[in-house]
Prior knowledge:
This protein is 40% helix and 17% strand.
Amino acid sequence: xxxxxxxxxxxxxxxxxxxxxxxxxxxxxxxxxxxxxxxxxxxxxxxxxxxxxxxxxxxxxxxxxxxxxxxxxxxxxxxxxxxxxxxxxxxxxxxxxxxxxxxxxxxxxxxxxxxxxxxxxxxxxxxxxxxxxxxxxxxxxxxxxxxxxxxxxxxxxxxxxxxxxxxxxxxxxxxxxxxxxxxxxxxxxxxxxxxxxxxxxxxxxxxxxxxxxxxxxxxxxxxxxxxxxxxxxxxxxxxxxxxxxxxxxxxxxxxxxxxxxxxxxxxxxxxxxxxxxxxxxxxxxxxxxxxxxxxx
Length: 296
C-alpha cells in the first residue's frame, strides 16, 4: 500500500499535472498560472505551443519536451530531476495531461518511485462538452480516440454499441465523416449523437441529431475544428442467446453462423468470437468475413 500526503514535506520533488486551456486562454486558472511560475521546469508536449501560453501569462520558466515520440528516453531524465528534489510541472497542448495526451507514462514512473503527484483542476474537453450535450451526463464512458484502422474501429464500435452509458469520443476533423459513417453502419440511422467542436472558442458549435442527420451534415459541409463526439446510451433489449447446436453451426458458413446468433439476439462481436472459438478460426478472420473486409 502506498499513501500520499500531497502537501507535507518530501525528500523528492513534486510532479504537478497542470491543465491548459482547450481554446479560450481566459480559462487558465490562477493556481495553474502560479504553479507554472514557481516550478523550475515544465515538461511540455510541444514547447513551441506552450511558449505562446507562457508568453501570454508572462511566465519565464524553462521548458523541456515530453511527448509520444521521446517519452521512453526522456522519462528517466525527468524522474531523476524529481528524485533530486526539484519540482516539475507537466502540460499537454490543451486540456488535461494523460487524457488522450502524453502524461500517463511519467505519472506511472513517478508513483513507482514514491514521488508525489499533484493534479491541478482545470479544463477538459470531454466533460465540458458532455454537460452541454443534452444527453444523460452520468454515468458516462470516456473512450478517447477510436482506432484509425477501419476494421479495428468497426470492432470497437460494435463493442460499444450496446453500452447503456453515454459514450464520449475525440475525433479529428479529417476523420469525423468516416467515423460517423462507421457508427451509422454499426448502430443504424436513429441513434442520437451530439458533436461539439471548437469548444470555448469564437466558433464553438454543438450539433445534435441522429446518426443519419449528422452523416448528412458531415457529407455536405466543410469540416474544421477538433471534435468531441457523444453517443447516447443504448436503450434496447439485450437478450442472452440460447445455446445453438454445435453440429448445426459447423454445417453452415462462418458468416451464416454469425448471422444466426445475431438473429437470436446476440451482439455481433460476441457472435463472432463464439463462431471463431467453435471452429478453431482466428477471430479477426471471422470478423473480416462477416464485414466483407477480406483483401482490404
